[in-house]
Amino acid sequence: MQAGMYVYYVMGKDTMGTNAAGDHVVVVGGGVIGLCVAYYALRSGKQVTILEREPEGGDNCSAENAGMVVPSHFVPLAAPGMIALGLRWMLNPESPFSFSIRPALLRWAYLFWRHANRSHVEGCRSLLCGLNLKSRELFVELSSEFDYGLVKRGLLMLCEKQQTLESEALLAETAKGLGMEVEVCSASRLAEVDPDIDMEVAGGVWFKEDCHLNPHAFLSGLRERIAALGGNFRYDADVEGFTREAGKVKAVRIASGSSRADEVDADQVVIAGGAWSPLLARELGLSLPMASGKGYSMTLEEPVQLPRVCSILTEARVAVTPIEGTLRFAGTMEIGGRNLAVNERRIRGICKSVSRCFPRFAMQHFDGVNRWAGLRPCAPDGLPYIGPAGPGLGNVFIATGHAMMGLSLAPVTGHLVAQLLGGGLPDIDIAKLAPARF
């Protein structure tokens, strides 16, 4: 989600549910998380008005991401060894990671350090795997409603070095223990799995339940479905705060005005504003530790080779996704502020890693290709914030902090939040995702 982009939904009647009078939900955030919350809330019978700060057709962080659905990603960002690895990477300006040391991030860094241990990883891997598998199920259901190029061929974790392959093979055994379909592949086996691209790697791990899709088509389809279910969009609308009464939010205030004409009444509010969610939460007196993790993507319109299977270049942390004849490369994690400036040294690091693993690709293939940047909302323990905002905010819910799994976890997040909005218990235990956990 790009800087300052907020979307507000007051849900409308759904042909699949009943519409309770005065049952208005305001969803803050127009990225893939906000849209999925809006969609599933509509299906449960809510009402709609949509307010978006950017103009119609404005940029969106969700549209240019890697487009992967990743049950394979059951290890959170806060994991053993990440701090040491991050410190080494910080010495290399072309590495996939950087951290901007600033006072606002000190608490986040401390909490990250507290959670980067084996106990934390073991305690949440079943939850992350379960969330992603449920989300995959919902993606398949959604593909029957509209076409967004869902491809169910799995994901290849490609390893340049034998040592990396051995480490990934150990992770594959854990994945099997979680009930996932996984195969450790030699270089020759990889050539059988995806014969359409030349690879220079030691081997890889094939996570067979992962998928990829066209993010732009998915977002467009969601917007069309929201409109078909009764949603009305209003663009170029900014937000300056919230009107509270008796421990609840009664309205969302639109920029530079305080009269009733500048407010949207709400019975329930969902904050799903991506990297900007902490600013909105602060207006409600809620502390939401979050860091913005900047990532880049580049899309080759006519690649020299087009793989069948999406992949991640493990050492470089670069995602490679074939999207309807084009090929997208996405990577880096620059922890810092909300600056969307492109660092060409990091871009060069991405391009070098591609040419090492895929020898038919050369550095010049990326000349003149648009460099896109977006911000991932990163919670310090690597888990998203999903659930009630906390005491004193009885009708406010949070859905943000998904880091690199925003697209992958979007449908299940929308599904779970819609259950909460309806007053029921979610069908997955999300106590560990409580927004007030810090």
Brief digest:
With 438 residues, the protein is of the alpha+beta class. It has helices at 32-43, 82-90, 106-115, 118-143, 162-177, 187-193, 215-228, 277-283, 344-357, 406-421, and strands at 7-9, 25-28, 50-52, 68-69, 97-99, 155-159, 182-186, 203-207, 211-212, 233-234, 239-245, 248-254, 263-265, 268-271, 291-300, 310-313, 318-323, 326-336, 372-378, 385-388, 396-400. The chain has two domains: 7-62 and 217-285 and 381-433, FAD/NAD(P)-binding domain, CATH 3.50.50; 67-211 and 290-378, D-Amino Acid Oxidase, Chain A, domain 2, CATH 3.30.9.10.
SSE order and pairing:
Blueprint: E1 7-9, E2 25-28, H1 32-43, E3 50-52, E4 68-69, H2 82-90, E5 97-99, H3 106-115, H4 118-143, E6 155-159, H5 162-177, E7 182-186, H6 187-193, E8 203-207, E9 211-212, H7 215-228, E10 233-234, E11 239-245, E12 248-254, E13 263-265, E14 268-271, H8 277-283, E15 291-300, E16 310-313, E17 318-323, E18 326-336, H9 344-357, E19 372-378, E20 385-388, E21 396-400, H10 406-421
Parallel strand pairs: 2-14, 3-10, 5-18, 6-16, 14-21
Antiparallel strand pairs: 1-3, 4-9, 6-8, 7-8, 11-12, 12-13, 15-18, 15-19, 16-17, 17-18, 20-21
